[in-house]
Amino acid sequence: MRGVAVRPGSGNHGAMEVTTAMLADAASVENGKLYVHGGAWSVINTREVPVTHPSMALALVFRVEYTEALEDHPIAIELLDEDDQSLGPRIDGIIHVGHPPRMRPGTPSFVPQAIRFNNVSFEREGGYRFRVSVRDEEVASVQFRVLRSPQQQAQ
Question: What are the tens digits of pLDDT across the range 58-87?
């Protein structure tokens, strides 16, 4: 998928990773399922900059190995510009997964997450990305661009 870099774990157990990462117009998690509306885009077209984008969502799926369950996994999500300077929204949280009943030892769990960002301002054209980190190690990067398009219709 263009604009997404997912850094898988080392292949051994104990390496939580992101299996899916994308931007969407909207996303939600209900009953353990990830619902995505208008997903996998990588460009915000605008008539003018600066621009405030009304709403976007970051849709993620974490793979948690069986041996990692029952542990706290600190995560951080940051919006960065193309110089890797932080632009504001930073989310810190914890992922904690248990073992569902009758889960076979060794079976990983998949944890969907949908994070909504409202009224995000971009001061200039260029590249941006959401950096996703687990225990201060980058596990995914979702890249996108803000481009000025004089023909862009008002939204």
Answer: 999 999 999 999 999 999 999 999 999 999
Question: What confidence category does residue 15 fall into, taking pLDDT thresholds of 50, 70 and 90?
Answer: confident
SS3 10: coil
Q: How far is CA 141 from the centre of its chain?
A: 7
Domain that holds residue 56: 4-148
What's the CATH code of the domain at 109?
2.60.40.2550
Burial 109-127 (b: 16+ CB within 10 A, else e): bebbbbbebeebebeeeee
Q: How many CB atoms lie within 10 A of CB 11?
A: 7
Rg of the Cα trace of the chain? 17
Within a domain: 139: yes
Instruction: Record the pTM.
Output: 0.88
φ, ψ for residue 3, nearest 5 deg: 85, 5
Question: Is 19 domain-assigned?
Answer: yes
* Total domains present in the chain: 1
- Does any domain span residue 155? no
Angle at 57 between CA 81 and CA 42, to 5 degrees: 55
